[in-house]
Amino acid sequence: MVDLLGQYAKIKPEVDQAILDVVESSAYINGPEVKNFQKELEQYLSVKHVIPCANGTDGLQIAMMALGLKPGDEVITATFTYVATAEVIALLGLTPVLVDVDPKTFNINIDDARAAITPKTKAIVPVHLFGQCAHMEPLLELASEHNLYVVEDTAQAIGADYTFSNGTKAKAGTMGTVAATSFFPSKNLGCYGDGGAIFTNDDDLAAKIRKVANHGQSVRYYHDEVGVNSRLDSIQAAILRRKLPHLDEYNAAREKAAAFYDQAFADVDALTTPFRSDYSTHVFHQYTLQLDPKLDRNALVEYIQSKNIPAMIYYPVALHMQKAYKSERYLVGDFAVTERLVDSVFSLPMHTELSEDQLEFITHTVKDFINNQS
Ligand SMILES: *Cc1c(COP(=O)(O)O)cnc(C)c1O
User: Fold this and answer.
1) Which of 53, 133, 153, 181 should be mutated for ligand 1, with most atoms under 8 A from CB?
2) What single-letter DSSP state applies at residue 312?
3) Is 152 close to ligand 1, i.e. is its CB under 6 Å away?
4) What is the number of alpha carbons within 13 Å of residue 234 lying toward its C-beta?
5) Atom in ligand 1 nearest the alpha carbon of residue 156
6) Are residues 175 and 309 in the same domain?
7) Which pLDDT does position 3 carry in this prediction?
8) Strands 121-125 and 149-153
9) End position of a domain, from candidates 245, 271, 293
């Protein structure tokens, strides 16, 4: 699905030197690379505070801890997402309240979120799935009407731009109360191990986040509250600093591959290519299509894989159908859109190093299967 080695080859000298410099400096934890990466990412995003942490899941958890959410509080999120989003809600003793997604963008359906609000609701977690922002303007209005925190899960959308109806633009992860992202190697901005960060424009919240992420201490060995230990290593920060200046170029390369796929599949009735909203750019963390339900999606994926093309299904099971997250709250059929998506979506290779030859081969293979089936 990704070609991390090809991407590394292009920046190898700077990255190798940066890693070596950290090793020789011995500033392995909270060294200057971490501070500098934090500042450079703040600048790139135009956000007041970036707080690096160990991974994206930690980022979501720390954000919710810092908001002071209490067991029993309800947190609304989409059922069509990666598990981490709901996992941290449940781990903190909060109640995940899952809602359906929009059939075009696969992002949280705002009307369904509105209908799920109760007096116990404290936060909404929009996930900018596959690289395109959720519809933040109505979501932020809804949140402010009901006094809810908005925690953006921007693990798949770093670098995406949202445009408000008055023309103002904002980067994914800078619009809500707080946001968390991941630097997992295959993410749009990935390090060479685990990494993550939390973003906020709120000074007080940023101070709380730093405290929670550092064992609940603001003064060393004085612990005001129960916290966690979550840091970004200096080596990972050094790698990220060398990659951040290329992020826009990486996202443009993904967009170019997506445009190739779009065009190749434009005349294939059995396929629905990714929808592009007018309020958000798409940074294509994944290129995810829907196959006509009359055709056999699993057979298609197996066929593509048999040609050594690493197709994947994101996500084959919605959260409300997972053993760990099932609840009497949800009945089969409650989330018609998601239930259709889990049976019809598949994702093709998407990364910064896709060549035209590879794209030709992939699109021909997909079309061959469909032509033989219909
Ligand atoms: C990757 C991802 C996460 C978690 O990130 P990790 O760094 O792997 O913990 C959370 N949410 C979404 C939507 C993701 O894609």
Assistant:
1) 153
2) B
3) no
4) 16
5) 15
6) no
7) 87
8) parallel
9) 245
> For the chain, what is the domain count?
2
Write down the pLDDT at residue 269: 97
Tell which one of 60, 82, 107 to mutate to probe ligand 1, the residue whose CB is within 8 A of the most ligand atoms.
82
If one residue of 128, 184, 232, 288 were mutated to test the ligand 1 pocket, choosing by the most ligand atoms within 8 A of its CB, it would be: 184
Are residues 254 and 191 located together in one domain of the fold? no
Residues 251 and 241 in one domain: no
So what's the pLDDT on residue 208?
A: 97
Question: Which of 245, 260, 275 corresponds to the end of one domain?
Answer: 245
pLDDT of res. 231: 98
Q: From the alpha carbon of 194, which atom of ligand 1 is closest?
A: 7
The reply to whether 12 and 135 lie within a common domain is yes
What digits encode the pLDDT tens for the residues 312-352?
999 999 999 999 998 888 887 889 999 999 999 999 999 99
* Residue at token pair 């598949």: 346
Decide whether any atom of ligand 1 lies within 6 Å of the 214 Cβ. no
- Nearest CA, atom 6, ligand 1: 56
Find out whether the beta carbon of 184 lies less than 6 Å from any atom of ligand 1. yes
> Which runs of consecutive H residues, i.e. helices, occur in the chain?
4-25, 32-45, 56-66, 84-91, 110-115, 136-145, 203-213, 234-243, 247-265, 297-306, 336-344, 356-373
Tell me, what's the pLDDT at 329? 83
Mind listing the pLDDT tens digit for each residue in 106-139? 999 999 999 999 999 999 999 999 999 999 999 9
Tell whether ligand 1 has an atom less than 6 A from the beta carbon of residue 84: yes
Counting atoms of ligand 1 from 1, which one is nearest the CA of 285? 15
State the residue range of the domain holding 119: 4-99+107-245
Work out the burial of residue 30: count CB atoms within 10 Å of its CB; fewer than 13 is exposed, 13-18 middle, 19 or more buried.
Answer: middle
Query: Where residue 30 sits, what CATH number does that domain have?
Result: 3.40.640.10
pLDDT of residue 97: 96
- 221 and 299 in a single domain? The answer is no
Query: Which residues of the chain fall short of a pLDDT of 70?
Result: none
